[in-house]
Design a protein that fits this description.
The protein is α/β, with parallel strands linked by helices and 279 residues long. It has helices at 4-20, 24-36, 40-59, 84-98, 144-147, 160-175, 193-203, 215-229, and strands spanning 69-76, 124-129, 135-142, 151-155, 183-191, 244-254, 259-266, 273-277. It folds into 2 domains: 4-18 and 63-142; 145-266, no CATH class. The protein is built from 8 helices and 8 strands; from the N terminus they run αααβαββαβαβααβββ. It starts with a helix and ends with a strand.
Amino acid sequence: MITQKQIEETVCHLFKQAVIELPSDVKKALLKAYEKEDEEIARANLKAILDNIKIAEKLQIPMCQDTGLPIIFVKLGKVEVENLYDGIKKGVEQATKEIPLRPNVVDPLTRENTGTNTGKNIPQVNIDLIDDVNIELTVLPKGFGSENNNALKMALPGDGVEGVKKFVLDTVIAAGGKPCPPIIVGVGIGGTSDLAMKLAKKALLRNIGMPSSEERIAMLEIEILNLINATGIGPMGLGGKTTALDVKIELADTHTAGLPIGVYIQCWASRHISAVLKP
């Protein structure tokens, strides 16, 4: 059995590592953007980001003051787990005290802060069942500078691929510098309204530079990325070559009468990390 205590300790550890140290693929992409940039202001912004990353790692402190809303992805195999949700919740509360994480969770109407980064239906836990004898936990602390710029469109089937490209591009242009670019853009196509957004969110977990396994989707990812970077929005919205580090698309079949499109924007601090637990 995987115990509640194991879940708590793992979640706390994952949040500590996620908010302090970026995945290597993200750091490499930011460095590449800096090296190819020739506009002075854009280079200065990218250098500030890279310096910030190094300081956070050196001092072991969060790289951004917004340590995000706690989102956890669970791949649940054929294992017995003790109090899974309680373990995740207590792990978030422990991380909030120890790291510390900024207490971000509030009642949506009264705005009263829980002080623990947990609350009604938070942390948000997404569960996928897998054919394995383990459990995989992935934390995604999601800042709201980028979250506030997500978008959903229930497009018409006739809008097709061109409609998808236009909606993603329009969403990024409307966001401008608000989500702290260079951004990573997750796109979910198909399913239902909620599934399209979930797919867009899950797309962010794929490494930068790792294209879709479907050639037609991989080509669409490249095309949309080039369109976004041609806008010239640039780092922090102040101009430059790199507005987005990557575009990642996930797909689901859908109803004959619909074309749901979800766009999930992540800031440069694309924080996520996973761990596998076995009984």
